[in-house]
Amino acid sequence: MTAVEVSVVLPAYNEEDTIESTVSTTVGTLASFLPEDAFEVIVAEDGCSDRTPEIAARLADEDSRVRHVHSDERLGRGGALEYAFERADGDTLVYFDTDLATDMGHLQELVDAVRVDGYDVATGSRWMPENRADRPAKRGVPSFGYNTLVRTLLRSDIRDHQCGFKAFDRGALETLLPLVQDEHWFWDTELLVKAQRNGYQVKEFPVDWTPKGDSKVDIVRDVFGMGSQILRTFWELSVSPRITREVSLGAGTLLVVVALLLMTQYLDPDRVLAEMAGAAPEIVALSAVVYAVSWPLRGIRYRDILVSMGYRERWRFLTGAVFISQTGNLVFPARAGDAVRAYVIKARRSIPYPSGFASLAVERVFDLLTITLLAGVVMIGLAVTGSAEQLLTALTGDTVGGDAASSGRTAVAVAGGVGLVAIGAVVAIVASARSDRNLVRAVIERLSGDSYADYVAGIIEGFVGDVQTVAADGSAFTRVGIGSLLIWTFDVITALIVFAAFGYSLTPSLVAVGFFAVSVGNLAKVLPLTPGGVGLYEGAFTVIVASLTPVGVAAAIGVAIVDHAVKNIVTIIGGVVSMAWLNVSLTTAVEESQSTDAIEPETND
């Protein structure tokens, strides 16, 4: 009996109408140039929901050269190919799309490129200069743009990365597969790019190709999927290797300096120094110490959130991760520092990105709910005492004039909107945690008709599920809620100590207004209109304090500036120390990303 030399894998997902004719054509074509027992045809049936498994099993029973490899769950296009290749017997491994869009007259050339000519990888191409493929504009334009982007960013010499007509030397493929992270449509591209980067010989040759079925740009597959994978591979191959410890620390320090410079665009440095000069420095220093105490509480709260999601980490490590992410939020608009934290816990503790972002979402919701609660309680008190009318007059009149009033009006309006959104988010999360309905997949399928939607829906469902897990855990909900209340109480106490540094007595009225001013100021800076929320916080704080207490406008601005500066400086110092400790640069926010494989968490108790 002749040993199997060539294994052809046919990736099949719900192909009941075509799989039998495809297998017949494939067997006949291989038999035309190979000995009868020198090849096998493997139907890689990827968790189909139609009759494809039954048909594939029957074909395997009828012909010993045909094999059926079944997967109970969806592995994705790349995952199904890898699964089948691991079970193949041939030294030359081949696959092509089951619609047979590529002319099968090219099959011998594809096989012989590896089997006879000694190439490590061979691939058909619809974009060679002498290409004869029929490329309608609705297929050709997106394909040309995609391949141009890959060639430019990933420095590939291949013209057509996605042609489903490829062959591999077994040894080369076995070496390359551990390097390939994608399991779906980007699998072909990533494998070709990494084959070139690792010095393997790749042959690209023109093929006759006829489009089968309709095609359109798919939002989920083409934009979310392929685009993000190009960026992820670019980061992995071109950026990450250059990030040494020295570069990481240097870049992080530079970005912290940028954060300080950005602050001067929104605040007058001379005024900051003048206001600080009028305050008792030892009491200002005390406020910084008190604020620093709240940071371990942030690490403990974040630990409690992750524990409820099944990940156990030390609070000291998590405190450092929070420091780094909040420093990033001072530097970048749009709260891009949050991406840094997701990266840190993924890179250092193998917590998947969806879980990382879900834990951040839970933390943000609790933050917003807590400061909304604090602001709401004081607002009720103001209404009862009649002081609310004074605040309304300050916002609409000229009691507090100039930029402070304008910024204050904007800030209070923003704070009100954010507070309502926070309450709505909590209601929605708790309600969804108690519901069996799954709206994620329905929404994704409305956006995409491609099978890649299943993969994306699975990632988003994991994210939503993690958020709901915390919401459904009464004990975790209570612990995180109490932690949030303590954290934001320390935030207010810091501001009250700054009032004391300016010589003001902490009367019950000033304490109440201080709670309200700090809460509204923090709600206002949630929208990333400026780095670190500089400007909005001061405006809200000033207009509230100046309208509801005997503190004058200039003094209120001074207290706001010093309070916010103390908090930002403590954050930056903690961020620099944490970056040095964990060897993380803020530039990693550009991300190594979109790796969403679930990895067992490390236990660091």
From TrEMBL:
Q: Name the CDD domains for this protein.
A: DPG_synthase
According to its UniProt entry, the protein's GO biological process terms are: protein N-linked glycosylation
Q: How does it sit in the membrane?
A: Multi-pass membrane protein
User: What SUPFAM superfamilies does the record point to?
Assistant: Nucleotide-diphospho-sugar transferases
A GO MF annotation of the entry reads: glycosyltransferase activity
**GO cellular component terms attached to this protein's record:** plasma membrane
Q: Main localization of the protein?
A: membrane
Does the keyword Nucleus belong to this entry? no
Q: Where in the cell is it found?
A: Cell membrane
Taking every annotated instance into account, which residue ranges of this chain make up the domain Glycosyltransferase 2-like? 7-176
Q: What stretches pass through the bilayer?
A: 247-267, 273-293, 365-388, 408-431, 539-562, 568-586
Cite a single Pfam family from the UniProt record. Answer: Glycos_transf_2
Q: Which UniProt keywords apply?
A: Cell membrane, Glycosyltransferase, Membrane, Transferase, Transmembrane, Transmembrane helix
Q: Which family does it belong to?
A: Belongs to the glycosyltransferase 2 family.
Name of this chain's protein? Glycosyl transferase
Its source organism is: Haloarcula taiwanensis
Q: What is the lineage of its organism?
A: Archaea, Methanobacteriati, Methanobacteriota, Stenosarchaea group, Halobacteria
